[in-house]
Amino acid sequence: AAQDAAAERHGRAREEVLPLAGAAEAFALLSNLRPARAAVVAPSFTEPAAALTAAGVPVDHVVLEPPFGLDGVRVPDDADLVVVGNPTNPTSVLHTREQLLALRRPGRILVIDEAFADSIPGEPESLAGDSLPDVVVLRSLTKTWALAGLRVGYAVGSPEVLDRLTAQRAHWPVGTLQLTAIAACCGPQSVAEAAAGAARLAEVRAEMVTGLTSVGAEVVGGRAPFVLFRRPDAVRIRNALQLKGIAIRRCDTFVGLDERYLRAAVRREWPLLAQAIAEVRP
Q: Which of 2, 10, 65, 190 is the most exposed, having the fewest neighbouring CB atoms within 10 Å of its CB?
């Protein structure tokens, strides 16, 4: 039922869907594709590079410059595995379908992490519904549906690539609860609820960006359910916010970013964040 629901949700065949113990499991399985050289587009979620490096796969970070789009990106020609987020964590940048498809090359597999894609109204740049032999799309249920503790997601791709991806895998990694969650969250009613939530989130995000800009934050243009912004005094701001009980993500742990960048979740309570930033003394 889980595979059928996800397949129907994206207009794919059942055998093109692979249930996962969270999208993170897919990153641990990437080395099964036996890449000779991997390229990870950065700044991005750190787990793919960490998993590939741990498996002995050479990894190149293709670091994007602000505003962190793919225009003019140069991926090594001999990279036979490319991993990119869309929208990207932590930058929130949403790449276009055309930009992503331009990364394809003969003999290369393109992996797109769409963990936050369902938080964008209409999912206009998603490739989950495109049946392409060399593209694997990863989806997560732990974001929109707040199921992080359950560890559940799925991949969509060609059966041949999915078979290679799971050539070596722990026995029974996905249990009944995860399969039930996939079936429920991919059903028509849930998809409609997620779409309505995405529309509401977009409105709040626009207001939040305006508010943060008004207190001197340099906001990176994006569409994800979080906002990346830069301030020269970001370290002092983060420490001051901690004292006020406001959690915000430092971003110097991401390749391509430094201590001036912070990431904040899109919340209706954003005025409290903006006010707290404004109260931080130089």
A: 65
